[in-house]
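Interim report, section 4.2 (structural modelling).
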Amino acid sequence: MTDLTLAAANTIIMAALAKGADARMKPLTVAVLDAGGHLKAFQKQDGASMLRYEIASGKAYGALAVGMGSRWLDQTAKERPHFMEGLNAVSGGRIVPVPGGVLIRDQTGKLIGAVGITGDTSDNDELAAIAGIEAAGLRHQAA
Amino acid sequence: MTDLTLAAANTIIMAALAKGADARMKPLTVAVLDAGGHLKAFQKQDGASMLRYEIASGKAYGALAVGMGSRWLDQTAKERPHFMEGLNAVSGGRIVPVPGGVLIRDQTGKLIGAVGITGDTSDNDELAAIAGIEAAGLRHQAA
Amino acid sequence: MTDLTLAAANTIIMAALAKGADARMKPLTVAVLDAGGHLKAFQKQDGASMLRYEIASGKAYGALAVGMGSRWLDQTAKERPHFMEGLNAVSGGRIVPVPGGVLIRDQTGKLIGAVGITGDTSDNDELAAIAGIEAAGLRHQAA
Amino acid sequence: MTDLTLAAANTIIMAALAKGADARMKPLTVAVLDAGGHLKAFQKQDGASMLRYEIASGKAYGALAVGMGSRWLDQTAKERPHFMEGLNAVSGGRIVPVPGGVLIRDQTGKLIGAVGITGDTSDNDELAAIAGIEAAGLRHQAA
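Predicted structure of the assembly:
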C-alpha cells in the first residue's frame, strides 16, 4: 500500500469507536489525516463538545509534524516547553501536544497518515486509536 | 429531532457518495457541519485533490453564515463582490461562495446543519448534497 | 457627553429592534461599538443566522475605520475596489463594506461610536440603526 | 427549551449585573454565547477596560470548547500547561482559561450555551455568572 485509502480510514474510525464503546469511554471524536496532514475522514459522536475536531486533528497533525506519536510531543512539551511553543507557532497553531495522536504506517513501515482521538483520558484516546489502526491491518506508532 | 446526529450525518455522506457513483461524478469530498459550524462527519474519496476539506467545509460554513444555501452566495458574489469579500474577511477566510453548500433542516424546518460537497461541477456537487439530505429524511435548502 | 454609555447603547439596540418589528423586518442583529472600535453592547434576535455578530460589527468597525457611515464604504468599494481590499487587509479582515453601519455622534458632533445592523436588506438595516440612534438623543451619520 | 433565546440571554446579563452591583463588584462585562460559540448578547459596563469583550467571550468560548466550566480550564492550565497552550492554539487564540466562564444547560441538562464574565476577581465573576443563569431558570456548570 502506498497511500491511505478512504476505506482504511473509515475502518480505523469504526474500530476506534467500537473500542470506545466496549471500554465505556466518553463520546469520542476521531480524525484521520493523510501523510500530507490533510483530513481524509472524520466522525464526532453525539455529546462530544464544541472544539473536538480541532483537538483531534491537532493531535494527529502534531504527530505528523515531527514523525512521532503525540505522546512524544507530550513528553517533549514537559522537558522543552519552548520547543513545543515554537513548533506550534510555526505550524500556524495547529498542534495539541498530548497523547492520542498516533502515526499510521503500512506493513513496510512507510508513513501513510495519522489518527487523532479526543474525548476520554488521553491514555484511553490513544488506546482507541491503536485499536482502530490494528483493525485496518496497519502499523501504529504512538510515541 | 433537535440536533444533527452522527448517524444522520453518516447517512448523508454515504448517500451523497452513492449519488456521485451513480452519476459517474469525479471523486467527491463531503463535509457535514452542525448548526454552529462545527464539523460532525467527513469523507474524502481516493483521488480527490489536496485542499478538498477546506473547499467542502467552506461551502457549508458559508451557507450557515447567512442562513442560505451557497448558491445564494454564488449569485451575491457576482452582484455584490465587495459584500462577499467582506463576509469572507470577517469569517476569517472560511467561505467558498459557490453551489454545493446546502442547509439541512429537520421536518419542522429548524436549521440543524449544512453539508458541503466538492469534486465535480458545482451543480453536480449540489445534486449529491441534496440526495444525501433526502436519504436521511431531512429537508434541504440550496439557495 | 464625552463617551458612549451602556445606557445609551442599550437604548439604541432596543429602539432599533422596535423599528425592525414595526417594519416587519427579518430577525436583526445589532452591535454597538465605542469610538475605539470595541464592543459595548450587542443583541442577536432569535432566528438570525450564524455569522451575524461578525457582519454587524464588521459594518460598524468599517464605519469607524474611515470616519464615514458604511454606505460610503459600499460606494467606495464599487468605485475603487482595490482601496477597500487594502483597507480590509490592514484591518485584519474586520470590515463588511455595505450599508447598515452608522456613526454615532453626540450633540456637539463628537464621534462616540458606531452601530452596525444586519438581517434585512442593507437599506432597512440602516433605517433601524438611525432609529436607534435618534431614540437615544444622539446624531447619526450613515454615509 | 432547545435553544438559548435572546430573552433568556438578556435576563442572564441583567441578573449578573445586578449581582455585581449588590456585591459592589467592579464594572463587569458579560458575554452570552450559544452552544455553537456564537455571540447572542453582550453588555460592558461603563468604566470597564478596553479588551473586556475578548476576555469575557474567551472564558465562555473555552468552556464550550471542552464542555466544562472555565474553572476546569484554570486547573488544567496549572497541571498541564502544554495542553492548554495547544487548545488555545487550535482555537485560533480564543480562550481565556480562568474562572468566570460557566456553561448554560436547560432543565433537561442539555447544553445550550455559556456565559463569560470579567471585571472583578475571577471568583466573583463566576458568582455573577451563576446568579445570572439561575435568574433565567436554567442550570449552570462552573467546573
